[in-house]
Amino acid sequence: MKVKATRRKASKAEPPKTPLGDFLSRKERLTAGKALRGILPRERNAAWKPPSKRRDPIDVLEESNRDRMAEVVPIRYGRMLRSPFAFLRGSAGLMAYDLATTTPNTGLRVQACGDCHLVNFGMFATAERNLVFDMNDFDETLPAPWEWDVKRLGTSFVVAARANGCSNAEARDAAIACARSYRRHMRECSKKSPLDVWYERMDMQAVIERAPDVKTRKKREEMAIKARQRIGEYLVPKLSTASGGRRRLMDQPPILFHLAEKDGDKRFREGLADYRLSLPDSVRVLFDRYRLEDWAIKVVGIGSVGTRCLVGLFFSPEGHPLFLQFKEACPSVLAPYAGKSIYENQGQRIVVGQRLMQSSSDIFLGWTHGRRGYHFFGRQLRDMKFSPPVEGASALQAKLYGEICGTVLARAHAKSGDAAKISGYLGKSDVFDQAIGAFSLAYADQTVRDHAALVKAVKAGRIKALVEEDL
C-alpha cells in the first residue's frame, strides 16, 4: 500500500451539482414531476416479467467473483443458500442488472444506495454519541434512478415477510407500507428548506416513543440497549486475547485470520498512513492518539464475502481500544448501467455517498488504496451498529418497520435529489404504492427461482458452497 508524500492531493472530481436546474419554484418542479406520468404511468412500476434472453443468474454471480479472494467465495455461496432472503442480500448485482435492463424509470436521479434492503437499515451512534436509526451500508452507492432503491427495498420486505410465514397479501402490505411512507415523506421533504432536510435525523428515542403499543415499545428499547453495547470495549474480549503483554486478534478461520505474507504488515501500515491523510485534519489529531496493535482479515456479510476486509485493533497509551474496519471498495454494481463514479478511488465514492445519504456519519470515515491496486474505505467496526432481527417478525411488525425504512429512504434521497419532482410524480394517491406492492411480489417470486437455481448449481457441482455450520 503505497504512501503518498506529506499531503493528499485534492480530488479532481467534483460532487454532483444541484438537481434543481434553473432553480425553478417548488410548484414548477411538482408540475414537471407530474408531467412524467405521461411518459411513465405510475402503474407501470408494477411490471416485472423476466425477458426471454435474461442472463443466467449463476453466470452473473460468478462474474461478480472475478476479483474476489477465491478461497472464501464458497462461504458467500454457503450463506446465500440459507434462504431466498439470504440470496437476495447476496445478489445486489443481479437485481441491478434486472432493474436496469427490464424495468422503466423516470430519469430522475439521486444518490442511490444500490443495495437497499431492510437489513441495511438500523441503529448506530452519531459523533455526539446519540443513537439514531438510518441506512448503514453504502458499498454500492452511486447516482442512479431513485426507483431502483425503492423496488429493491420493497422486494426485501416481501421476501423476508414470506420467510416468516406471512401470506402474500400480508407481505405485499409491508412493501406497500414502505412505499406509502416514502411517498408521503418525500412530499414533506419537498416543502422543507435544503438545510432542514440536511439536518433531519431519526433519533432512536423518538422511534421508541412512537411505538403503537407497549410490546413494540419494549422490543425497541431492548434493541437500543443491545446497540449501545456494541462498542470497542465490549468487542476486545470477544475478538482478541492477551499474548506476550499485548492484545492480538484471535484467529477464527475461515472467518477471522491473520495474513500469512511476509510483507503483509508493511503493506497494511502503508495503507493506514494513506488512510490517515484522507481524514479531516481535526480527526487526524484524534487518530494519532491511538497505536496499531494488531490487524487481521475478517469475512463479513453475504454479498461482501470474498472482497478484502481488514480489521485493525488500536490502543491509546492508557489502554483505551479502537476498532477500525477497512473494506475493499469495488466498483458499484450500478456502474455498468448508471455510469462510472466520478471518483478514481472507489473508497472515496463510498465515503462521499454515505455522507450524502446519512443524517450523520462515522467521524473515522476515510479511504485508502493498496500497493496492489485495491481500494478501501475505513470506518469504526460496529460502534453501536445494530440492525433489527428479521427472523420471526410478524405481519404488523413488518409493516411498522416498512414505514420507518420508507421514511428514512425518502430523506436520504431528498438530500441529493429533487424532492419536488419526485413528489410530483408520486402524487397523493396510492397508485405508486400499489404498483410497488405488485412489483415486490413478482420479483420475490423471481428471487425464489434464482435461489433454486443456486441450489441446483451447487448440487450439480457447477459451483462450490461452504456451509459454515458444517465446519
Low-confidence stretches: 1-10
Number of strands: 13
Number of helices: 18
Helicity level: 40-55%
Residue fraction in strands: 5-15%
The 3D shape can be described as globular
Calculate the terminal CA-CA distance, rounded to whole Å.
33 Å
Largest sheet properties = 6 strands, antiparallel
Structural class computed from helices and strand pairing? alpha+beta
> Could you give the order of strands across the largest sheet?
8-9-10-11-13-12
Evaluate the radius of gyration. Answer: 22 Å
Query: What is the total domain count?
Result: 2
Structural commentary:
The protein is α+β, with helices and mostly antiparallel strands and 471 residues long. The protein folds into 2 domains: 37-228 and 391-470, no CATH class; 232-380, no CATH class. 46% of the residues lie in helices and 13% in strands. Strand 12 (366-369) and strand 13 form a beta hairpin. The model is unreliable at 1-10 (pLDDT under 50).
